[in-house]
Amino acid sequence: MNTDVIKRYAELAEMKVAREADLDEVKKEMESLKEIVLNELVSAGVKSMKVTLLNGRERTVYARKVKYAAVKYAELRPQLVKALRETGHEDLITVNSNRFSSWAREMMEEGGPGIPHAVEQCIEMRERVEVRAPR
Fold it and tell me: What is the DSSP string of 38-103?
């Protein structure tokens, strides 16, 4: 039996757990800084800012508004499912929320058909601000 391979697998599993814990901490800190970063960008009157990191790489940090559709109240979920079926959009019942929001944004675009009234009664368009720093 090659115990070296088994040992290596166990070591990798251990590394994975440690890195996932580190990543959770990074995400928590980023979340705690998001509002502060947003306020800094707004107070500076800029939409984005390029910064040089300690490793010499550059990143552009920016904020963007994202519109998404959400059920107004949890109690309206059955009514929304019924409305989607009745308006021929039953394919949206089992999709994730991003796909549903994308559909709602498309329907609301200028010149678009609009959201069917029965569906519109159950949802509301909300907006959140995301802070990003892509590669």
Answer: HHHHHHHT-SEEEEE-TTS-EEEEEEEEEEEEEESSGGGHHHHHHHHHHTT-GGGTTS-HHHHHHH
Domain-wise residue ranges, the chain: 1-46, 62-135
CA nearest neighbour of 89 among 78, 97, 81: 81
pLDDT tens, position by position, 61-115: 999 989 999 889 888 889 999 999 999 988 888 878 889 899 999 888 877 788 8
pTM over 0.70: no
Q: Is 5 exposed, middle or buried (0-12, 13-18, 19+ CB in 10 A)?
A: exposed
- 86-94 own/partner pairs: CB under 8 Å, 24+ apart: 86/118, 87/116, 87/118, 87/119, 89/116, 89/119
From 125, 67, 118, 69, select the one nearest 89 (Cα to Cα). 118
The Cα–Cα gap between 135 and 127 comes to 25
